User: Which sequence fits this backbone?
């Protein structure tokens, strides 16, 4: 009996290790599971952030109208929206956040995670082979997995579009935009643009009023 218990214990430890090594899902601050993927030296979210609460439980205001969006930007207050205010888009692409939500000290990322910095985005792109190769990999799924380097094609970078500082939505189904946690100055921060048309991914500077998608990395 003791030998059986010992064997079962070893099996439990081994199975736990396998599950954790596969970049399996975890949960955000609202208890919703999300997928992850191991890319290079980091474990990334494999889908866009989709929460309306900070880590401490405080709610993040939603801005549906252009007036609400502009007001939150001018006041430097956090806000989120769904592309074109279409719930189906929310299910597919997650939420868009202004940079004030990204940088809020209450924590936009789930516990144990943080919003990817510009340097971490650069590491990911270099790991995937540079602009064009990274774009090809990030924007597609179902390619053959590289066993030695992890699941390189599992990022699932969808073209979720963005919202500009005037509250106008654009770019859905053509461009993916993600904030970096890296600030440029008091009015602007760094971001990444995935161009589905030209197949490239670039670092860009956006006004903090903009609404972009967010990806997080495990601490």
Assistant:
């Amino acid at each position: 009996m003791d030998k059986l218990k010992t064997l079962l214990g070893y099996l439990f430890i081994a199975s736990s290790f396998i599950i954790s090594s596969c970049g399996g899902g975890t949960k955000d601050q609202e208890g919703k599971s999300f997928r992850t993927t191991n890319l290079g030296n980091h474990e990334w979210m494999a889908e866009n952030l989709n929460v309306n609460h900070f880590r401490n439980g405080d709610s993040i205001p939603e801005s549906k109208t252009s007036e609400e969006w502009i007001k939150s930007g001018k006041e430097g207050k956090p806000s989120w929206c769904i592309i074109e205010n279409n719930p189906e888009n929310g299910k597919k692409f997650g939420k868009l956040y202004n940079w004030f939500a990204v940088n809020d000290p209450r924590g936009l990322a789930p516990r144990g995670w943080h919003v990817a910095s510009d340097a971490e985005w650069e590491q990911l792109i270099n790991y995937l082979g540079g602009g064009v190769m990274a774009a090809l990999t990030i924007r597609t799924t179902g390619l053959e997995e590289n066993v030695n380097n992890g699941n390189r094609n599992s990022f699932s970078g969808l073209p979720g579009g963005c919202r500009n500082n005037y509250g106008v939505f654009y770019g859905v189904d053509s461009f993916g935009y993600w904030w970096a946690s890296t600030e440029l100055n008091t009015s602007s921060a760094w971001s990444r643009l995935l161009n589905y048309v030209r197949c490239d991914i670039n670092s860009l500077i956006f006004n903090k009023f903009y609404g972009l998608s967010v990806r997080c990395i495990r601490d």
DSSP finds six helices and 13 strands in the chain. The first strand starts at residue 26 and ends at 27. The mean pLDDT is 86.
